[in-house]
Amino acid sequence: MGQRELIRIIRSFQRRLNIADVIQKSIMALYVGAGVGILFQAAAFVVPFYDAALYSVLALLVALLTAVLTAFVKRTSMRQTALVMDRFGFEERIVTAYENIGQEGALIEFQRDDAMSQLSLYRDRIRIPLFPSWKKMVLLLVLLSVMPVLALLPSAVKERAKELHAVRQEAREKTKEIEELVDSLEEFAQQDLSQEHKAALQEMIERLESSQMECEQAVSSEQLTAASNKLEYKYGTMGSELAALAQQLQNGASVSTMTPESMQALAEKMQTMGGMELAEGDSMQSGSNQNGQSGNGSQNDQNGGQDGAGSPNGQNGNGGQDGQSGAGGQNGQNGDGSQDGQNGDGGQNGQNGQNGDKSQGGQQGDGRGTGSSNTPHDYVSIPNDIADTENLTGNAVNHEDSTYFRAQNGLSWEGVHMSHEAVLGNYEQKAYEGIAAGRYPSGMEEVIKQYFSSFNQ
Hints:
The chain is mainly α.
């Protein structure tokens, strides 16, 4: 009976010692964790460290978990508990009685009874505190309070860290999006296609990988926006190219019908991802040769055309620009003569061309027509392209100091004359090609697009 009671008393103090050990080790670990967390928060004021708060919390949790595991592994044994109890004036009576448990003998019984009698009289002497001193607790609370205070303090570096985090997150999404498209294009390239078609697909893959690298290297929202704008434009142009390639494959019927259908679906997806960029790209490319409402000639008819062909849909068509044989527009009621007045024909209904032929048949006039049409003629003079005509006299080359020179019939400008719509279309096309190729500084893409869209408005 005395042995069981001794074991019960020792075990009760053992549990208290283990609980106190866990608490004290945890508090010491929280000291360390709080110190590390404060260092993380302080570092966030110096370098862009978006996850400083997360790492601070993790430092506390890791420290606490380490303390609990350490206390469990090094938990106090029964013998160690008996030794701790003896420190309160029992002079090793308790540990001796514990070591002799299970043994019999008069001397052992006498020693055990003495230990139990001392425990019953002086058990209150054994005091095992669960918590450390209040000073240590206050210090821990101060350290734990400093962490959220530092986390809530604003700074420019923290704002920069937030921006970088948002940029990286969006860049990862863009990268994943591009990787999916690249995988689809690589699957198409592995089909039984011609070398020309495979080369076109490979060129698309390289363009997408270039945009992927730009997104990954972006370190600011401006750079990522510029890279995204380039990517959207590429989506639009590549969607058109892929749709044309799918149409060629359907017409050729050289591969499985699934390949053109899948390619067409991917082309529509890319066009959708390109958004308005596709519409701008198409209008840029068609510019002045599809449905010009001001009747400009096609891009290959800048000199009026040898056969006098105006644009197909030119409702108020201008005459040939150099007027060698050019016919006037269909609605040019007061028919324009040629701009340089050399061989200018009047319009079909031309009546006021002073030196042009009034008949519908084109005969050579002697001077510049002075008729008018329903639309104003705003021309752009392009230097360095010398007009080749026998009616111009004088030195027709090397005019560095002047854009015009005096000819037999007055002032004549070098080069050819083009409508401003055609010139803007050419410049717009070159600008968008430069955007797609990444030749402009970051952040200038939107400025360029707005500049050219203002002319369209």
